[in-house]
From TrEMBL:
<feature type="compositionally biased region" description="Polar residues">
    <location>
        <begin position="694"/>
        <end position="703"/>
    </location>
</feature>
<dbReference type="Pfam" id="PF16586">
    <property type="entry name" value="DUF5060"/>
</dbReference>
<feature type="domain" description="PKD/Chitinase">
    <location>
        <begin position="962"/>
        <end position="1054"/>
    </location>
</feature>
<feature type="region of interest" description="Disordered">
    <location>
        <begin position="562"/>
        <end position="581"/>
    </location>
</feature>
<dbReference type="Pfam" id="PF24517">
    <property type="entry name" value="CBM96"/>
</dbReference>
<feature type="region of interest" description="Disordered">
    <location>
        <begin position="590"/>
        <end position="615"/>
    </location>
</feature>
<feature type="region of interest" description="Disordered">
    <location>
        <begin position="694"/>
        <end position="731"/>
    </location>
</feature>
<dbReference type="InterPro" id="IPR013783">
    <property type="entry name" value="Ig-like_fold"/>
</dbReference>
<dbReference type="InterPro" id="IPR024749">
    <property type="entry name" value="Collagen-bd_put"/>
</dbReference>
<keyword id="KW-0964">Secreted</keyword>
<dbReference type="InterPro" id="IPR022409">
    <property type="entry name" value="PKD/Chitinase_dom"/>
</dbReference>
<dbReference type="Pfam" id="PF22352">
    <property type="entry name" value="K319L-like_PKD"/>
</dbReference>
<dbReference type="InterPro" id="IPR055372">
    <property type="entry name" value="CBM96"/>
</dbReference>
<feature type="signal peptide">
    <location>
        <begin position="1"/>
        <end position="18"/>
    </location>
</feature>
<feature type="domain" description="PKD/Chitinase">
    <location>
        <begin position="707"/>
        <end position="795"/>
    </location>
</feature>
<keyword id="KW-0732">Signal</keyword>
<dbReference type="InterPro" id="IPR029865">
    <property type="entry name" value="KIAA0319-like"/>
</dbReference>
Amino acid sequence: MKSLVFLLAMIMASSAAAASLSGELRKWHKVTLSFDGPNSSESATPNPFTNYRLDVTFRHAASGKVYRVPGYYAADGNAANTSATSGDVWRVHFAPDETGTWTWNASFRSGSNVAMADLPDAGSSAGFFDGDSGSFPISATDKTGRDFRGKGRLQYVDKHHLRFAESGRYFMKAGVDAPENLLAYTDFDGEFKTDGREDDYVRPYTPHIQDWSNGDPVWQGSKGKGLIGAVNYLADQGLNAFSFLTMNIDGDDKNVYPYTSYGERLRMDVSKLDQWEIVFEHGTRNGMYLHFKTQETENELMLDSGNLGNQRKLYYRELIARFGHHLALNWNLGEEINGASLQQKQAWAQYFYDNDPYRHHLVIHNGATHYNMMGDASKLTGFSLQLNAYDFTDNFAMTKDYIDRSVAAGKPWVVATDEPGDSRYSLRPDSDPGTSHTDARKDALWGNIMAGGAGVEFYFGYALEQSDLTCDDFRSRHSFWPFCRTAVQFFENNDIPFDEMSNANSLVSNNGNNANRCLAKPGDAYIVQLRSGGSHTLNLSGQSGNFRVRWLDPRNGGALISGPTLSGGGTRNLGSPPDSTGSDWIALVESTSGGTPTNEAPVVSAGSDKSASLSGGTVSVTLNGSASDDGLPSGSTLTRTWSRVSGPAAVSFSSTTSASTSATFTAAGVYVLRLSASDGTLNSSDEVQVTITEGQPNNQAPQVTAGPDRSATLSSGSAQIPLAGSASDDGLPTGSTLAVSWSSVSGPASVTFSNAASSNSAATFSAVGTYVLRLTATDGSLSASDETTVVISSSGGGGTTVTVAAQDAFLQNGSNVNNADLRVENSSRKRISYLQFDTSGSSGPFTSATLTITQRGDVPSGKMQLRLFATSNNWNEATITGSNAPAKGAEVAAYYGDIPAGVALNFDVSSVVTAPGIYSFILDTDTSRDVTFASSENTLLSARPVLTTTGSGGAPANAAPVVSAGPDRSGSYRNEPVSIPITGSASDDGLPQGSTLSLSWTMVSGPAPVSFSPANAAATNATFNAAGSYVLRLSGSDGALASSDQMTIDVVADIIDNEIPTVSAGPDQAATLSGSAVSIALNGSASDDGQPAGSTLVTTWSRVSGPGAVTFADPASATTTATFSTAGTYVLRLTASDGELSESDEMSVVIEDAAPGGGSPVTFAATHDAYTENGSRFNSSLLRLENSSRKRIIYLQFDTRGVGAVTAPELKLTQSDDVSSGSMTLRLYAATSNSWTESTITGTNAPAKGPQLAVFTGDISKGKVLSFDVSSHVGAGAIYSFILEADSSSLDVSFASAENSATSARPSLIATSSAAGAAPLLPGAGAEDPGGFASMLSSIERDAAGQITLTASGTPGYTYAVQRSTDLIEWFPMGLAEADAEGRVRFEDSAPPQGSAYYRLTEP
């Protein structure tokens, strides 16, 4: 010991200099202390992550605030850039929340697993900087805008929303939940990129490199631009949150974890975590809330089998130490958590609460409901909600359910919807949005908000491009993000007390979960969501004063639009929305408090987008911004500021504080400039894009038109139509040639082109139907295309032909306008529309003719009178003006009424259109209102003007009905029938004459019957009684021909209410045989939550292992008796099942022989165990065995010294986790060397195989115990090592290791000692042996009263510490014993335990 004391003194003497301080010394900024400590490495022994602990206590005397902040090992202190794995830097981050002087004091401890110890004085001083102290000054923050360092820490304040500590404003979230593997990034360090585990999911975020700006962070020269650019893009879109898993080992991706390798659990990859921090810090500075998802369902029980053991504690501590200083984040205990017990989840939450100095927001994601964690049952402060409805219609109700339940439990939860929609699609990409963008806006984003929720993160599904696992381009949903920005700015720019508001749907008319909704602070403020527009009422009964109404357009954003003023005291009409009255709108209704208005944010416009070309290396652009304010607060002054948001180079402004200014650019590229305005309390901003090009022209894409839509009739089985397309180009790139090509986009049969490479070609058709043809032009660098529609009808003079307008335009006060619109108005602007149709290719005469136009664009604010006139054909859409337009002929048809958005108006023109030919019409109005219809140039093909004619010639051929089952759907199932609407469609040609189209829905496949209501209509409701995947078919028949179409509906089991039963088998026991048998009482217990409804909890006792049979008096009762007839160690299991979920617990029973003498059973725990996989070490709670492409070998070591010779030794292993699923052959070998440890063994230093000791062949089922006879190898007390291998096969199996949480399942070596009553006295450690342990002899005696006397021979005058164990795993101090003058050591245990007891002498 003298030499050990001297060494410690030398270490203490080498204490390092004071810590280095870095970071901006401002409130809410990251301040870093770096210490020079012991030189170590990621792979060093002792482990720097587990066996050292840095904590720094920060104090602020003026406020009395004290924070104990955990630190971490930082390698060389610059690992993000150097990829260092070693060094002597130890570091702590702190985010001060007060100005003035802060003092600090460092604690640096060492010892086995000291980092995971709970007590502050655990371990011993590690020297160096232990006890060092210092101070630093903190000034006020100077940050503004999105930067969270200007807003303060986001805190839970016993409300349903989080509040910024500096600004006092509350937070509404809108961000991305995908990709969940955001951190699977090419530019991060680590072996994950090339380890063969889902490497395809690792991505570079190349599409976002363009979003990186000069001055943004990088590492190792130029790495990081893709992911940093992605954060920039999200922030620029107005989003304020992103989410990520920090560990997905065994999950869908397998590329994200903090460790040095996939199999490691106690050593961190320092450089990778430092690179994570660079991204997170950039997010904080750009106003991005960080959603840390710490695990997922596939690995929720991986660390310490779900318990709060050393692996899990270290993982949580490292997250807190490295990233807890960030201001806006939540710790999510896990995604889809459904396997952990309530006690385990409570322990996880408690650890974060106890060790996160800032007490960040703490949530869990549903798998189970976690209702039982509400209130005081856990430290959770909120919930992360995952849903399943494809159209997001379950969001409002489920958000409100969790909010209401949490209030009832006594602690309001902050409830965010962090994964809305179904698992397959959810928020779909712009390339295939379906209705998801509209549905998500109405019912995900605003559905959560109107329920009182804290906001939404959007999930991308797995079935389409840019999915939850593959997304590397957030522009894939670019058209959706403005909806989020509008919602966030609505709350940021207006003084709305949403933190004090709760759902009050009953106050608004036509309300419901998925109808109109209301969020209210009655008498003060109301937010009303008109989900489908219209005119509705708000109940202001009992409220006094006046209320102003202002409208927010959630689809297009913009400033609030003033509406009517309402008086309290009754139910009042909100009036109609400003426009698009059939679309969703948000009404903000506020009390004017006797005429004193609420301060509103400034109204800002940055002006229209600009472009310019460099001249002489520079160019100036005039910016015509504007900013106005309401003059509040009283006496305030409106300030304006221009800034550069993004762009390739710096921008100089002639005046940064004037709304109208000029900006000077020196480099080509795309710039985003921001005009901000502030009244001192509220801020707002707007952005303008400026495109700067080089002094020479840029290549432009070709200009292409495919010509007008056409129709024709089959003649002798074919029809040919001339195609009059055109294409032009700018001649760039220099020397390029414009090439054109025709192709068929869609149609029932192939199309033949006379010359597909000529814009003027002819197309030949051989089948009836509608075709879309595309003309594409390319200059070799850029390309463009246009499409035309061709309708081919059947021969015989009959049937219906649809002809698209060949010419159409409108005149505005006599001027020609030829674009995608047809406008009609009769006010100061006289607008008249002209249309012409060519039916020459149709068969006549006609029995009917209908002209159809579809509303697109402006919707009239009231009823209109439209009149349709016939006219001559001597006009052209390109040249028509007021001076050459044809005159009106006879009035053919008229319409009077409302014209809602998207409506199609039909005019009967049968009186004029009677035979094939060319027909022209004039559309005019008597009304001063205006309306817009789609023209033949409109991008929406289905909205273009058409003339539908029906011929009266010979009988046309009957065609089969056209049937569509509609898009695939998904829904949620919660143990009760679920009804899902289906929007199929079907049409027919009316043939045979007099026939009726009949429809029927049927189930093609699925796990349970489906009922349809009605079953004979295209649009129906399907009701499902079980979760699963269903294929449904819609069939249509005209009595002669039939056709059908199919669609798939995935019915997903919704939130699992049922919880796993809670089971305890009771304490381990021991007994002695009396005669031939002995019985002991088993005091187990089991409880359940009563789910599924009507279930009964069933309990069962069983024997897992043991040398003999066990008889249970009542195996179905948790409390019963068990009878044993053979001495040995038994493992008994109590299992409880509710019919759906089951759980079990085990206990050990040691039965001793009654007869004295003959030796005592001794059980040895493994001192080292691990396995290698293709040579790599794995030291965890499992030992895995396999011999296929993965070669897994198990190594075990036992220490039997101190017991003398043993007989009948058996090595026992217990199956855990993976079963073999078939017969395997296992071979146990003696190892040729003991010079290995579980923490260092690899394929290159592992011991070689010695003689084969035992063989097992058979199936290895769950919980099976394997016993190997090792008597040929184990005899005298010594250290023994073993190697276990499997014969070659595709099967694998795993066993519990010495680190497994199931104590009874750990590897053991069981033998009988050669001397009665002998117990192991384990030798001391070290080369010196002053206590004489190596030569010590001992004996143990038990007297008639049961007292045990321990006698040993030691060193005269030496003092020994006596310890006792019942399992050779946990040792407890019993006292001290001093050897007398002759070296005799004597110790008495007056109260020994029942059964076996083991004693050892150690150094005190």
